[in-house]
Amino acid sequence: MKLTRINRLQGEIAVPGDKSISHRAVMFGSLAKGTTHISNFLAGADCLATIDCFRKMGIQIEQDGTDVTVYGKGLHGLTKPEEVLDVGNSGTTTRLISGILAGQNFEATLSGDDSLNQRPMKRIITPLRMMGADIKSVKDNGCAPLKIQGKKLKAIHYESPVASAQVKSCVLLAGLYADGKTSVTEPVLSRNHTELMLRSFGAEVTSEGTTAQITPPKELRATDITVPGDISSAAYFIAAGLVTPDSCIRLKNVGLNPTRDGLIRVCRQMGADIQMEQIRDDGGEMAADLIVRTSELKGTVVEGDLIPTLIDEIPVIALLAAFAKGETIIRDAQELKVKESDRIALTVDNLVKMGVNAQATDDGMIIRGGAPLHGAHIFCEYDHRIAMTFSIAGINAEGETIIEDAECVDVSYPTFYEQLKSLQVSEEGRI
Ligand code: S3P
User: Fold this and answer.
1) pTM (global) more than 0.90
2) For residue 139, what is the DSSP state?
3) Whose CA is nearest to atom 4 of ligand 1?
4) Gene3D superfamilies given for it (predicted)?
5) Do 332 and 307 touch, CB atoms closer than 8 A?
6) Euclidean distance between CA atoms 137 and 142, whole angstroms
7) How many CB atoms lie within 10 A of CB 304?
8) CB atoms within 10 A of CB 62
């Protein structure tokens, strides 16, 4: 993908459905009794991998673009897959399905692409084994492929060392099959879509502070799910609207769950002009239209409890920092090293290539903003969020930017370049 400077962005777009919520809707719909209709489903590669896995376990799922119908067969309705479950690039698919597989009466193997098969899985192997699960890393390296022989599970209380919604969700989903109440306490609250949606499916799930607890239900009850727009996808257009001159963009129906909206808080701290209209609440999931206008930004500090609420947005926050006056410090974000790529190293390397004064630290980065960006050849290691971040950098840099493997945006945002183009006011720049 080649990009050059765009002088102005204007118009409105509806960003695609939330990735985390789309995964969960398919999973819980498969485990529920009855038919679940999902609208505004994210038809990106990650969520399609989740559909594929459940089809391989005997669930009939119809997908027509963003409309999905799942014919759930109940908590004990899955059947042994004939093949390895291919989770592609998706950590959420891997870690959440592992919790479900731990409680089945069959054996299954999960495997993904090169990046996925290097990501840490000990974080779920440890609590699942505490529950009595039979799960092993096939290569004995703490990574996928994972072989899971389903078993009767013991209820536990788990003190998670990481604030990870994937770990929390994995344990709660195994808790669906345990012999009593299972709870998870995390150091800082992570996204709570699992807790909210399991409740919509009729499960008794309580949340108190950073502890979530599930009582194993007899069955889950099918329900219809309307997926709000993904704030993690909106993030690229929020950044584009803020830093591209003379811009005003309306982003329709963006999910604003308080465990996900840290980006908005940080942008406002930096001086961003972001307005909200049409605020709504669907099953506890808030959403609103966002109106984003070009703003003078100033540096800030991003740390502590805020980190899990914006974990996937840190590369694009780093880009905003490059356009801001003064210094931005991001800390407590060591989790970034084990995402689809090492996002601390890759973000900083690519920012430096474009002329930004940026430095990696052990748990984050320091960026001194204000210097003009120049085009560069960007390698994203097939990480969709790096590709999208540096595309926004490219349309605000002098000269040409080339993004290698830009098609990896399909993982979470197949229409990204199309929508970016639709906001371009003149033909001066090129996408
Ligand atoms: C996700 C949780 C986060 C996030 C990922 C999606 C989820 O991962 O980075 O993109 O849907 O639960 P961790 O739980 O590993 O922080």
Assistant:
1) yes
2) T
3) 312
4) Enolpyruvate transferase domain (3.65.10.10)
5) yes
6) 6
7) 10
8) 12
